[in-house]
Design goal:
Bound molecules: flavin mononucleotide, manganese (II) ion
Structural class: alpha+beta
Number of strands: 25
Distance between the termini: 50 Å
Largest sheet: 9 strands, antiparallel
Length: about 525
C-alpha cells in the first residue's frame, strides 16, 4: 500500500531519468566524450562539486554523444547526492526507510479482532515485496534478443583510470541462484571486459555469489556418499579440491549459470549493493523499497529470472574451475587494486531494449557517487544492527573511511566492557566484519560530527588501555594487511571509563556555559555587531 502523497515507484530507468530531468537533477552532455577515461574524469569532477557543503555532489550526467558509439547514451552519477539518493528511493529522509523496517520488526501479535483488522494494510504492503514473473512479450528487456554474433563491446563500456586492466562494467546487478535453497542473489560486482563474449566476475570470497560457486564446487566434488574431499582455496572465492587432479578433471567444464542486469530502476540497482543476509533475496528488498513488486522475466539461455524492465541483460555462465587475472582497477579506496585471479563469465545471450541506456559509475578517491549509496545503506541498516546490539544509538561511516576502514558508533553504556562487546558484535555481523577501525563513543557524542568524535576520542583514551586488536577476514581491497583477505582490525573504546572498569580517577565534565549566561548573551548578541 502506498503512503499518502507518495508517487508510484519508477517502472524503469527511463522513468527515473525523466524524473531527474524534471527535478533539475540531470545534465545532458552533448559534447562528444570518450568512454575511455574522459567520461570518468567528467564524472569525478562532477562528484566533487560542492564538496563538504549541504549541496555536495553535482548533477546526474547523461552522455548523449559517445565517441565510437553513435546514438548511445550513458547515465552516470544517478545516485550522486543526498537529494538524489532520496529521490531514487522516493523518501523525504533516508531515516523513513529505517522507520518502516523498525515498524516491521516490532510488530506485536494482534490481541483483539480489531488489532487483526488493523494489521491488514501491513500485510497487503508486505505482499508487494514479493517479485512477480511476467511473460517475455511484456518484458521490455527482450525487445532485442541476440543469441549469436553479439559483442558486449557494442555497449559504451568505460575505462575509468589510466592503469586499469581494461574496460569495466561498473554498475551491474549480478544474479545467481543458491544451488541448495534455490534462493536468488543479486549483488553488484564489477566485470572486466576481456572480449565481446567474456568478462571477469569480481565476486570477493566473502560475498554471497562466491558462496554459490563454492556450493556448486562442493556438490561437484562430492563422492557417491556425498562426502567432500578437502578443499583448497583459490583466489576469487573459489575452492578447488586439494590435490586430486582426477577430481579437478571431474568438475572441469561444469558450469554455474549467471545473469547480469544493467540499467534497472534505481531502487533495484541500489538493492544490489545492500549487504543483506544471504537468506533475503534482493528482489524482495527492491519490492520493499519500491513498495511495488519487482517484475521478473525468465532468461533465454539460463534458468534464472531477471528484472523485466532492465535496459540490458547478459546471460551466461561461470566455469567452476576457470580463473583468470582480473585488474588492476582504480578502486573506491583511492588506490588501484592489483590484478588477482577471479572467475570468468562467458556470455551466451544478450537481450536489450531498443536504444538501451547504459549505466555506469566511477569509483575513486571519495567523495564519489558510491559515498551516497553507502550513506543510504548506513541509515537503512541502523535498525537491523540495533536488533543484535540494542545499545547502539547511532553509527557513522565517513566516506573517507571507504566504508570498511572506519565505523564510528555511539552507545548507551550500562555495564563494564560494553564498548568492547559492541566492537566484537560488529566484527561478527555480515559485511561489517571488514571494518578495520571501530571507534565507540558515549551516547551524548554526535557521531555525524567527526570533529567532535576526534576531540572526544583523543581526549578520552589511554591508548594502551583502550585500543584492542583482533585478527580476522579483511576486505579484498585492503592493500596493507599482512596477507590478502586476512589481517588485523582495531577497536578504540573512547567512552568515559568507569570505576568498574578499573578507572578510579575522577572524570572531568565537558565544558558548557550556563543556560542563564547563554540567554543573556543571546539577548545582547545582535547589538554587539560581531556577526
Ligand atoms: C559501485 C560498486 C561496485 C562494487 N564492486 C564490487 C566488486 O567488484 N566486488 C565485490 O565483491 N563487491 C563489490 N561491491 C560491493 C557489493 O556490491 C556489496 O558488498 C553487496 O552487498 C554484495 O552483495 P551480496 O551480499 O549479495 O554478495 C561494489 C559496490 C558498489 C556500490
Ligand atoms: Mn545478497
Amino acid at each position: 500500500m502506498l503512503d499518502e502523497g507518495r508517487t508510484v515507484a519508477y517502472d524503469d530507468l527511463r522513468q527515473w531519468i525523466k524524473k531527474l530531468d524534471k527535478a533539475g537533477e540531470l545534465k545532458r552532455v552533448r559534447e562528444e566524450v570518450d568512454p575511455i577515461l574522459e567520461m570518468a574524469e567528467i564524472a569525478d569532477r562532477t562528484a566533487k562539486l560542492g564538496k563538504g557543503t549541504a549541496a555536495a555532489g553535482g548533477p546526474a550526467l547523461l552522455f548523449e554523444n559517445v565517441k565510437g558509439h553513435a546514438g548511445a547514451q550513458v547515465l552516470m552519477n544517478q545516485f550522486g547526492s543526498e537529494r538524489r539518493m532520496k529521490l531514487a528511493l522516493e523518501v523525504d529522509s533516508l531515516d523513513e526507510i529505517a522507520a518502516r523496517i523498525e515498524e516491521l520488526l516490532h510488530q506485536k501479535s494482534p490481541a483483539s479482532f480489531l488489532d487483526k483488522i488493523k494489521m491488514l494494510p501491513k500485510l497487503a504492503e508486505m505482499g508487494s515485496f514479493f517479485p512477480k514473473t511476467v511473460a517475455a512479450k511484456d518484458a521490455p528487456c527482450k525487445e532485442v534478443i541476440l543469441r549469436e554474433s553479439f559483442s558486449v563491446l557494442d555497449f559504451p563500456i568505460l575505462q575509468t583510470w589510466p592503469q586499469d586492466g581494461g574496460r569495466f562494467i561498473t554498475l551491474p546487478c549480478v544474479i545467481t541462484r543458491d544451488p541448495k535453497s534455490g534462493k536468488r542473489n543479486m549483488g553488484m560486482y564489477r566485470m572486466q571486459v576481456y572480449d565481446g563474449q567474456t568478462t571477469g566476475m569480481h565476486w570477493q570470497r566473502q560475498k554471497v555469489s562466491a558462496e554459490h560457486l563454492r556450493e556448486r564446487l562442493r556438490a561437484a566434488a562430492a563422492d557417491g556418499a556425498g562426502r567432500v574431499t578437502m578443499m583448497a582455496e583459490t583466489a576469487g572465492g573459489a575452492l578447488l579440491p586439494a590435490g586430486g587432479s582426477d577430481l579437478i578433471a571431474q568438475i572441469k567444464n561444469q558450469r554455474m549459470e549467471v545473469a547480469v542486469a544493467i540499467g534497472t530502476d534505481p531502487a533495484t540497482t541500489f538493492s544490489a549493493i545492500v549487504p543483506a543476509p544471504p537468506e533475503i533475496e534482493e528482489f524482495i528488498i527492491a519490492g520493499f523499497l519500491r513498495q511495488q513488486p519487482l517484475e521478473l522475466v525468465q532468461c533465454e539461455t539460463v534458468d534464472l529470472e531477471v528484472p523485466a524492465h532492465a535496459e540490458i541483460i547478459l546471460e551466461g555462465y561461470v566455469d567452476l574451475t576457470e580463473l583468470r587475472s582480473e585488474g588492476p582497477f582504480g578502486d573506491h579506496t583511492g588506490f588501484y587494486t592489483m590484478a588477482e585471479e577471479y572467475p570468468v563469465f562467458h556470455i551466451t545471450c544478450i537481450t536489450h531494449r531498443k536504444d538501451p541506456v547504459y549505466t555506469a559509475t566511477i569509483v575513486g578517491k571519495p567523495p564519489m557517487e558510491d559515498a551516497w549509496m553507502g550513506k543510504a545503506v548506513e541509515r537503512i541498516f541502523l535498525p537491523l544492527m540495533r536488533l543484535a546490539l540494542p545499545e547502539i544509538v547511532d553509527i557513522n561511516l565517513p566516506p573517507e573511511g571507504v566504508f570498511h576502514n572506519l565505523m564510528i558508533v555511539s552507545i548507551k553504556k550500562s555495564y563494564a566492557g560494553q564498548a568492547r562487546k559492541v566492537m566484537n558484535g560488529i566484527w561478527a555481523m555480515g559485511q561489517a566484519m571488514f571494518t578495520k577501525c571501530i571507534i565507540v563513543v558515549d551516547e551524548d557524542c554526535d557521531v555525524q560530527d567527526v570533529a567532535e568524535v576526534v576531540l572526544r576520542t583523543t581526549n578520552n583514551i589511554d591508548p594502551e588501555r583502550d585500543i584492542q586488536f583482533t585478527l580476522g577476514p579483511v576486505d579484498s581491497l585492503d592493500h596493507a594487511s599482512r596477507l590478502p583477505n586476512y589481517g588485523s582490525k582495531m577497536g578504540i573504546d573512547a567512552t568515559r571509563k568507569w570505576a568498574v572498569e578499573g578507572f578510579t580517577r575522577p572524570w572531568p565534565e565537558m565544558l558548557t556555559m550556563s543556560a542563564e549566561v547563554k540567554a543573556k548573551v543571546d539577548a545582547m548578541w545582535k547589538k554587539l555587531g560581531i556577526e
